[in-house]
Write a structure and sequence with these properties.
Layout: E1 2-6, H1 10-21, H2 29-40, E2 50-56, E3 60-67, E4 73-77, H3 83-96, E5 102-106, H4 107-121, E6 124-136, E7 148-151, H5 157-172, H6 178-190, E8 194-198, E9 202-209, E10 215-222, H7 232-246, E11 251-257, H8 261-269, E12 273-284
Parallel strand pairs: 4-5, 10-11
Antiparallel strand pairs: 1-2, 2-3, 3-4, 5-12, 6-11, 6-12, 7-8, 8-9, 9-10
Helix pairs in contact: 1-2, 3-4, 5-6
InterPro entries: Acyl_CoA_acyltransferase (IPR016181), GNAT_dom (IPR000182)
GO molecular function: acyltransferase activity, transferring groups other than amino-acyl groups
Domain N-acetyltransferase: 147-286
């Protein structure tokens, strides 16, 4: 028997689903990290999140789904996840009137859900990005680059705000307003999550976020075009990853765009190993 369960809080969702998600913590780090952040920083929630599982008795989670509007639906599905389970999820979302801008999850699962959502709603499901998830447990030091690694400071905010907008355009194919980029960057600086490689001036940046019990995610990696090809990003990410391991995390993860072979190669050279593929779909109404 399948039992759909919707949760009123991230804490309730984690109490129910965390043990299952931790069985593959690195692959489920996105969902875990978002829910831990929702639990720990409820004052930052902009809209009520969707937190949901489908269980097969007794207490076996076969699907977990979360969404923090206006962002995409994120899926975890057991290997036994059959079409009826995705159909149940789609039906529940439609019945409750949730607007779904897109879906992100393991490639095969997100594809099957996107097909069903398009059939049920009449929207167009379009692949936005194919991503690869990587895990690092030991850093391979890159060739040294001039400069030093340091935390970002408020004095860096104007420059890093522009870099944040460029990062979203280059890596995520999304546009941020100046106000959105400034707020996001300022928060990362205030939380001590944003770092730069400084060669007499900032020449590259990288950030950490979404900590889970044993891991943390690296993201926000950007080097302006005129500074590329000099090893700044490799050194920045390598030192940041080692810093996280030294802080006690067992592993770091990151996502790359499969269409960018350069970044995929760079991260593997410093110790990141591919562990899963995700596909992001956007849903568009005619």
């Amino acid at each position: 028997m399948l039992s759909p369960i919707q949760f009123a809080s991230a804490d309730a969702f984690l109490q129910h689903a965390q043990t299952t998600l931790l069985q593959d913590e690195a692959a489920n780090g996105l969902m875990l990290g978002i829910c831990i952040r929702l639990r720990d920083y409820p004052e930052r929630i902009l809209a009520a999140p969707f937190l949901f599982t489908i269980d097969r008795e007794p207490h076996q989670i076969v699907l977990a789904a979360i969404m923090t509007p206006p962002h995409n639906l994120i899926l975890h599905c057991a290997e036994t996840c059959d079409p009826s389970i995705l159909e149940m999820l789609a039906g529940h979302l439609i019945a409750q009137g949730w607007a779904i801008p897109g879906v992100l999850g393991p490639a095969a699962i997100s594809e099957r859900f996107a097909e069903r959502w398009a059939q049920r709603t009449g929207c167009q499901a379009r692949v936005h990005q194919r991503q690869r998830g990587f895990e690092l447990r030991q850093v391979i030091p890159p060739l040294p680059a001039p400069g030093r690694f340091r935390p970002a400071e408020l004095s860096d905010l104007p420059l890093l705000t522009e870099w944040a907008r460029a990062f979203y355009q280059d890596a995520l194919h999304e546009d941020l307003t100046l106000e959105q980029a400034r707020a996001m960057t300022a928060l990362k600086i205030d939380d001590r999550q944003l770092y730069v490689w400084d060669a007499n001036e900032p020449v590259s940046m990288a950030a950490v976020g979404r900590p889970t019990p044993h891991g943390i995610s690296v993201s926000f990696v950007y080097t302006p075009p005129r500074q590329r090809g000099r090893g700044y990003a490799s050194n920045c990410v390598a030192v940041l990853s080692q810093h996280m391991l030294d802080e006690g995390y067992q592993f770091c993860t990151l996502f790359t765009d499969l269409a960018n072979p350069v970044s995929n190669a760079i991260y593997q050279h410093i110790g990141y190993r591919p562990i899963f593929d995700y596909t992001e779909y956007h849903f568009e109404n005619d």
